[in-house]
Amino acid sequence: MPIAIDAPVTTTQDRLRVGDWIVEPELNQLSAPGKAVKVEPKAMAVLLHLAKRPGQVVSRETLLSDVWPGVVVGDDSLTQVIIKLRKALGDDSDRPTYIQTVTKRGYRLVAPVLPPAATPSIPRWRAWTMVLGVLAAGLLVAAGIWWNSAERTKPMSRSADAVATELPTLAVAPFQALGEDGHESLLARGLTADLLTDLSKSSGLSVIGFSPMEGRAGGEASNQAEARYLVSGTVQRVEGRLRLHVYLAERDTGKQLWSERFDRASTDLFAIQDELGPKIVHMLPAKVSEAELRRMAQRHTRNLQAYEYYQRGQAALLVRQGSGNEAARQMFRRAIELDTTFARAYSGLALTYAADYRNGWVTDGPGALERAFELARTASEINPDVPETYWALAYVHAQRREHEQALKYLERSLTLYPSFADGYALMASVKTFAGRPAATIPLMRTAMRLNPRSGYLYFLVLGRAYFFLGDLEQARFNLDEALKRNPEYLETHVYMAALQVLLRDKSSAAWEADQIRALEPQFAAKRWLENYPMTDSEQRTKIMQALTQLSL
Predict the structure, then answer these.
(1) Helix pair angle (60-67, 75-89), 10° resolution
(2) Is 402 exposed, middle or buried (0-12, 13-18, 19+ CB in 10 A)?
(3) With the CA atoms of 46, 47, 52 and 53 taken in that order, what torsion angle do they form, in degrees rounded to the nearest 10?
(4) How far is CA 134 from CA 18, 138, 205, 239, 246, in A?
(5) Which region, left, alpha or beta, applies to residue 367 given φ > 0 means left and ψ of -120 to 50 means alpha?
(6) What pLDDT tens digit does each residue of the chain (552 aa) get?
(7) Are 544 and 495 in contact (CB under 8 A)?
(8) 253, 259, 57, 79: which is closest to 165 by C-alpha?
(9) Helix (H) or strand (E) holding 24
(10) 374 partner at 20 to 30 Å CA-CA among 85, 275, 457, 545?
(11) What is the three-class DSSP state of 36?
(12) Which residues lie closer than 8 Å to 426 by C-beta, 6 or more apart?
């Protein structure tokens, strides 16, 4: 069978040589003179997939969909497989001779791919044809390796080409509060979230874990496998002084690249924040424009008390219960009283009124939604350069069933903040509401890659999309994951109840119906759908028919 130069691998069970290793798929084994290494089936599948296209970039999306067909997994799963493959092959991620990471694109196999030395089942003339053809491909790949290797020996520069090929990835670990004071914990959380926001303004930097709407300032360092660089820090407030120690390190090696200790009056918090983002960016091989540096230095408020009230409001809002919603509203109002130009506080206040409408917590639902819309527009007019303002405005438009307008604002936010995971997640949600659940899946892949420690809402969005796509097993898996993370969120139980009806599991469906009534004693499916942002009539009918069978 003739072999194309760019695809010298035959079926997945054929033995082949990759660099110095003989690859034996049927044994999940790599062997070289004097040694043999076992690898996981998924690792073997990834290696074979790359070997089908030696020298070519294979996107992460392609590998995820082909190696994990029909299953949505985070990018961390692929990253861990690549790490294990490199370890088995004895490869170095910084100077790869087997698997090269092409940032923002995927991976490519840079080692030559050949058939094993002896292949008795193939006629001699045909074997030589294969070898010569593959050697030609190997020479082309080797030429590419030589060129890349020569380029790597040059001094590091900040040229546009270098940045485009090697876009730095960075994670921010939650800053640690050194004291017992609850104010310090709020301050640490706020500093982390704001630093993530500031760094995400750079188009030359990929920031992982930027998810302000979930209220988590960043993932644990051990779970940021995608990031090459890691920022961490400690916060302490002592007798009117703010002590902040910030570190920048290479994640894989632990090598510290930069650190700085700030010991200033607490009132200097915003001046410290102005300095922090640009200082970190200057230490990275990232291309950042002067305009982006100026945007980083823009503070959302200069009032320390308003800032603290805002952080308290965010914490209360994320409880997503009526009492917490009211507490959040009071905190946001106090923040606005102290700083009438605090756009993020207006966005938070808008979301409290949108929650009143969505959850039926007030008698005048339409009035609450209109108030949410006014506040979201006010926030955007005060400062359109903040992800929360776009997100809040898009969310309110979605509740008003103005999905195209919501998508327009989300697209704008992602242009300004390419690492905004929650922007992708809300866009995915709106796509399902508008009757396009298939478009939700790739958007959620991106959101989960950017935010590997995704919370329950991400899994709910996936479960909902799979429910309407008719993939009930995937729907159940993701709804289960959502319930593990938050067993008290009503909408997840609503979809799980409808799912169990479709699966004909009467006992589980009845149990979910009881959970719904426990969370919302007056729950009625028809009334719930009245305030639900879904506009697709077939989808509304599908869920309504399922819930009707449970007398909900």
Answers:
(1) 90
(2) middle
(3) 90
(4) 12, 6, 38, 71, 51
(5) alpha
(6) 333 333 333 334 578 888 888 898 888 889 887 788 888 888 999 999 998 888 888 988 888 888 888 776 666 678 888 888 888 888 887 778 889 888 767 888 888 887 765 433 434 444 444 444 444 444 333 334 333 333 333 333 333 333 333 567 888 888 888 876 667 787 888 888 888 877 877 777 778 765 555 544 444 433 444 678 888 888 888 878 888 888 888 877 777 788 888 888 888 888 888 888 888 877 777 666 666 555 555 567 778 888 888 888 988 887 777 888 999 999 999 999 999 999 989 999 999 999 999 888 999 999 999 999 999 999 988 888 788 889 999 999 999 999 999 999 999 988 888 888 899 999 999 999 999 999 999 999 988 888 877 788 999 999 999 999 999 999 999 999 999 888 888 999 999 999 999 999 999 999 999 999 999 899 999 999 998 999 999 999 999 999 999 998
(7) no
(8) 57
(9) strand 21-24
(10) 457
(11) strand
(12) 213, 391, 394, 395, 398, 406, 410
Checking 308-312 for CB contacts under 8 A at 24+ apart, the result is 308/183, 308/186, 308/187, 308/190, 309/334, 309/335, 309/338, 309/345, 310/190, 310/335, 310/342, 310/344, 310/345, 310/348, 311/186, 311/187, 311/189, 311/190, 312/186
Q: Tell me how far apart the alpha carbons of residues 264 and 373 are, in angstroms, rounded to a whole number.
A: 40
DSSP per-residue string spanning 201-255: T-TT-EEET--GGGT-----GGG-TT-SEEEEEEEEEETTEEEEEEEEEETTT--
HSE (side-chain half, CA atoms, 13 Å) at 129 = 9
Token pair for residue 294? 């100026």
- Please state, in angstroms and rounded to a whole number, the distance separating the CA atoms of residues 483 and 121: 54
- In the structure encoding, which two tokens stand for residue 337, read together? 């009283």
Whole-number Cα distances in Å, 489 to 330, 440, 492, 493: 23, 21, 6, 7
- DSSP three-state, residue 257: strand
Please list, in sequence order, all residues whose beta carbon lies within 8 angstroms of the beta carbon of residue 194, skipping any fewer than 6 positions away. Answer: 273, 300
Burial classification of residue 26, based on how many CB atoms lie within 10 Å of its CB (0-12 exposed, 13-18 middle, 19 or more buried) = exposed
What is the H or E stretch that residue 171 is in? strand 169-172
How far, in Å, CA of 307 to CA of 323, rounded? 22
3-class secondary structure, 58: strand
**Exposure class string for 239-274: b at 16+ Cβ within 10 A, else e:** eeebbbbbebbebeeeeeeeeeebeeeeebbbeebb
Secondary structure (DSSP) of 94-136 = SS-SSEEEETTTEEEE-S-EE--S--TTS-HHHHHHHHHHHHH
Bridge partners for 263 per DSSP: 243
Give the residue among 293, 303, 314, 294 at the shortest CA–CA distance from 337. Answer: 303
